Amino acid sequence: NAGVTQTPKFQVLKTGQSMTLQCAQDMNHEYMSWYRQDPGMGLRLIHYSVGAGITDQGEVPNGYNVSRSTTEDFPLRLLSAAPSQTSVYFCASSSRTGGTAYEQYFGPGTRLTVT
Amino acid sequence: DQQVKQNSPSLSVQEGRISILNCDYTNSMFDYFLWYKKYPAEGPTFLISISSIKDKNEDGRFTVFLNKSAKHLSLHIVPSQPGDSAVYFCAASESGTSYGKLTFGQGTILTVHP
Fold it and tell me: Strand pairing of A76-78 and A87-94?
């Protein structure tokens, strides 16, 4: 059971480039989320999904797109990278089964630098 | 508008003593609260949680206290161990319509000295 996996671990982009951060979970969790962590800001929710085919915006969605075609995968797309998107990105998943939807399992993170 | 605040960026304690980490929130709709622990270069890991129908929850050396009237929660670690040194985040959620959405505080760096 690998839990939540994220690729790549590190990425450097030039302003204007696009890329996709990958996230996968093998726990059959219905909820998946993307957060970014910036110094002094904690973790802020970018987008989340309550099931395959259903996504919604979080606190800081601008500049990011998501889709959820399967239960396992929840990729995050940066359409045109900007230096303000330099951050550490975490994917998380959780399940309502047993009433533990709030207790999210996090991946190891992707450190993104935009120059 | 920071709805969850951890006003102490860092805390330093001696091994064996108590560590107390604090968290304040402003949104009265929050009814479930969690603490996460994060080591460098790793994702956060769930530590302990509390529902708003309780005022205390214990799990081994970790106890979370909730004061709803003051909109304040705290995490007590007794006794503190060097392996507890990490960043601690408190988080809050609204039940019902907002499953899967957590609002995090800024984090507190805990250092436990041997």
Answer: unpaired
How many residues are listed for chain A in this entry? 115
Question: What's the rounded Cα separation, in Å, for the pair A47 and A66?
Answer: 7
Contacts of B10 in chain A (CB under 8 A): none
With beta carbons under 8 A apart, name residues in chain B contacting A35.
104
CA–CA distances in Å: residue B68 to residues A2, B24, B41: 38, 10, 34
Q: Do B43 and A4 touch (CB under 8 A)?
A: yes
- Token pair recorded at residue A45: 């929710």
Which residue of chain A is at minimal alpha-carbon distance from B99?
A: A101
Q: What is the pLDDT of residues A33-89, one digit of tens each?
A: 999 999 888 899 999 998 999 999 999 999 999 999 999 999 999 999 999 999 999
